Amino acid sequence: MTMDAQQRPGHVMIAIDDHPSNATTLEVGLALAHALEQAVAVVHVVEDAIEPVRAVTEHAGVELQLCHGPVVPTLTELVAAPEVAVAVVGSGEPGRTDLPAGHVAVALIEATTTPTLLVPAATTAGIGAPLRTVLLPLDGAAETEAAVAPTVGLLAGTGLEVVVVHVLALTQVPAFLDQAHHDLAAWGEEFLARHRVTEGAPRIVLRSGAPGRGVLDVAAAEAADLIVLGWSQDLSPGRAEVVRLLLGASEVPMLLVPVDAAAGPT
Fold first, then answer.
1. 127 part of a folded domain
2. Is 77's pLDDT higher than 90?
3. Pairing of strands 116-119, 254-258
């Protein structure tokens, strides 16, 4: 499947703050927009001095849109606009032990149905080099596949390598092992056919054990530049354990796609 810019509605909205890592957030967001061949809007909700933010955008040669109002509600409203295909924010630093990211990032990803890329401050993905490898963990659930399918469709036509990872619980391995390669190949082909992806067919990687740890291991082995993950938008205790682990332990930018957003921006 090949898709030109006219077939990819919307744009990438990059929200930056005055944190020193804002240049990293901006560069990764621009790398994603370049890979998707989408336009970019860079926004900043004014709280304090704007000079550091202006300096970063001027250095990158992009226009900065200044907004006013409470940070989280303002950002939530901005990224909810129908023309926004993907939002990009820095993951921030956890201010509480029960949160895996900064309070603004957490509040935004729990509130918005727009796919949102969280960029760790220490990431090297997309810094001085294009994005190349995308990791797509799937659990086999129909609602997860439906949620991430539009994003997979975008990525498959870009030249990025998509690596699908499926982590089996240890109790599943004996029954699955004999047919693993055949079943995974068939599952991958069916997934692509259902969502009309005919180029850039992903590789399917199988792991066993704890899902979060398996995803971390594959991300390291594949030198992933991006992780695309469907999720329930619920970070309450005992929920979203894979998301929590990845936000706390991985420096790979993570594109979170709400499971209920299957009919959302494409």
1. no
2. yes
3. antiparallel
